[in-house]
Structure formats: C-alpha cells, structure tokens
Amino acid sequence: MKVLCYTSPARGHLFPTVPILLELRSRGHNVVVRTLGAEVARLRDLGLKAEAVSPEIEAIELDDYRARGAQAGLRRTVRTFADRARVEVPEVQRLVAEEHPDLLLVDGNTWGAAAVAEASGLPWALLQHFPTPLPSRDVPPFGPGLRPLGGPLGRLRNRALRPLVLGVVERAFLPPLNDVVRPLAGATPIRDAHDLYTRAPLTLYPTSRAFEHPRTDWPESFCFLGPLVWEPPVSPPEWLAELRRPIALVTTSSEFQDDGALVDAALAGLAQEDLDVVATVPGGSFVDDEVPANARVERFVPHSPVLARAEVAVTHGGMGATQKALAAGVPVVVVPWGRDQAEVARRAEAAGAGVLLPRRRLSPTSLRDAVRRARGLRPAAQALAAAMAQDGGAPLAVDRLESLSRP
Predict the structure, then answer these.
(1) Same fold, 2-226+391-405 and 238-388
(2) What is the pLDDT of residues 79-90, one digit of tens each?
(3) Which CATH class is domain 238-388?
(4) Looking at the whole model, is its pTM more than 0.85?
(5) SS3 for the chain, per residue?
C-alpha cells in the first residue's frame, strides 16, 4: 500500500504523526510525506520519503496571537487555514496525480488537503491533533473550555449554549470552506461542525477516552489511539544529570504565539522553590535575560528524559506537550494561551491530573501556588498515565488504515 501523508507546517502536528508513519514503513508500506521544510532531512534519516510543502504555505503565518479577543483570534486562524488551503488544493491534486497513492492521510488543519482527499474517491483518513470540536449532547460546545456538566441539566445547558458558542465558530469557517476551498477541490459543501468532523471515513484521534470528556455518541469513524509521543532522537543534555532536585518542566508553544510571559512567571514564581526549573521555548518567545540560579531556559530539550525526573509540568496547553507530561504520570499546571488550549486545560483538570490557571490570573504568585497544588496530584496523574497506556497507539492506527484500504 502506498500512503500519501500531508501535514500542516507545525512540529506539534508532525511529531505525533511520526509513530504512525514509522509503523506503516515497518509493515512494508510505501510512505510519502509532505510537511514543513525544516523537518524533511530528519524524516529522510528515519527512512521516509519526505519533501517540503510549498514555501508559500509556510510563509502564511498563524498570527492569531496578534488579535485582541477570542473572536478576533478565531477570524485570524480561519483566514490562515483558508489562505493555506488555496495553495494546498492544487498541490495535493498534483501529488495524487504523480504519486498514485492507495490511501491519503491528512492533517485536520489542512483544509485544502482534506477537501481534495474527500473529492478524490480514494480511501482517506483525518489526523486530529487537537480536542475535537465535534458537537455532542453530552459535552459543552467547543471553544472556551467550559466545565462539563452531566445529567439532564448538563444536556439542557449544552443545547442552549451550542448556537451561542459553536455557532460563532461555524459562522467563521463555513463561508471560506464552502465558497472557496471546497469548490476549488470539487468537494461538496459542509453543513455544520458535525458534518465537517464526520466526513472522513476514519478519524485517527491521538488521545485517550480517559482524557476526553465522556460522551455517549462517539461516531464509529473516531479511533482513539492514546497519546502518540515522539521526539527527535537526540541525546539528553549533559547538564541534566547534574540537577539534584525534583524538576519542573515549563513548555511553550512550538508554533509561535507570544507566550514568553508564561516562562517569566514560572522563573520568578519558582525561584525559591525546592525545584530545578527547565524551560523550553521552541517558538523563540522568551526574551528575559534574568534567569534564576535554579533554572535553565533552552530553545530545545527532549522532554522525555526531563519528564522521567519531573514532579510537575507547566504548559501553555498544547495538546502534545500536555499529553506527553500526563502520559509520563506527571501532573500539569495549564495556562491556556489561546487556540484550542482552554479545551486541553479543562480536560486535564476534569481528569484530576492538572490545575487550570487562567491566563488573566497568571502571576509569579498564582503560578507558584498552582504548582504546589499540582504536585499533590501525582497519584491521579499516574493513574491517568496507566489508563492512557492501554490505548492501541500507532499499531492500532495502522490496523485501521489497512482495513480502510481494503476493497
């Protein structure tokens, strides 16, 4: 089987996809990948046939961090994905014609690639690397990270809030999808969020039911894989072995969103704690030169060896970073900065393995207090990690992809 995989130009979406690509290759399948140019050489070193997506796509910045307010940020996000999709459509159509794949595997944030996949008539699957906006009677509408509420009262609340919350999202993304992207690809219009997130014959969802809000109406097309943890195969830094105290890992987004204030607050708030603080800023969002004696700030450090010794992780709420910590049994403090991060934060809190600290309340003192509370959640985090470990991971994903490709 020949698989064409197309991802958005974001490491936070590529890295959790790599275990699936490697599992496909290990079973003898031919894998062709299009992704961000900076990671092409690394994928080739892993034995994958990789090329970069169009430079025009990478030049279209996700600039929602510049917006004032959630709705303005949503409009910027929609504009980014729609602008990229206009380039994705002809690019993916050309790739299908040249590569003759048996199956397409596309990132949920590549609207153009998904539309081409649907219109192609080929078997295809969607990779959804963020909490699903798929509506349900059992969960609050996606977006602001509302607290789940069970029973008839919760269902009544969810139904009443859906047009007010999810309706805003639908009114933002439906026009560019239906007026521009999908006609360009030859795909039929989308009716609403439920329609959008159930069009794919298979949705590979790299999270766990143990982390998701409970719902009784999951579509059969959704396949829970558990967190897919992968990071570049590099040696841990030598200085890590020299740290003697428990570690607090602080992470910011791999795709720039101007969240350096989270590192500032963590360094100041934890300077007097009995912890060694390791902060990673892959998006380059930290500018403060004053680093306390118990802290290190690095552009990149492999998280797994740090998490093996960590007592707590402080995160912006990216799905990958948050789940990586929880899968290691490390409780989290989540300060959602934007995008889907309020939903990630609420799930960590609802699972009993995290503390949600709203961005508007972020300060050195509030962060220190949240870290102290989170350190007491380690038993719950370890129980969640054990539950997540029961999911099928990349082998299950490839089992489902192979079943999808059979006539």
Answers:
(1) yes
(2) 999 999 999 999
(3) alpha beta
(4) yes
(5) CEEEEECCCCHHHHHHHHHHHHHHHHCCCEEEEEECHHHHHHHHHCCCEEEECCHHHHCCCCCHHHCCCHHHHHHHHHHHHHHHHHHHHHHHHHHHHHHCCCEEEEECCCHHHHHHHHHHCCCEEEECCCCCCCCCCCCCCCCCCCCCCCHHHHHHHHHHHHHHHHHHHHHHHHHHHHHHHHHHHCCCCCCCHHHHCCCCCEEEECCCCCCCCCCCCCCCCEEECCCCCCCCCCCCCHHHHHCCCCEEEEECCCCCCCCHHHHHHHHHHCCCCCCEEEEECCCCCCCCCCCCCCEEEECCCCHHHHHCCEEEEEECCCHHHHHHHHHCCCCEEECCCCCCHHHHHHHHHHCCCEEECCHHHCCHHHHHHHHHHHHCCHHHHHHHHHHHCCCCHHHHHHHHHHHHHCC
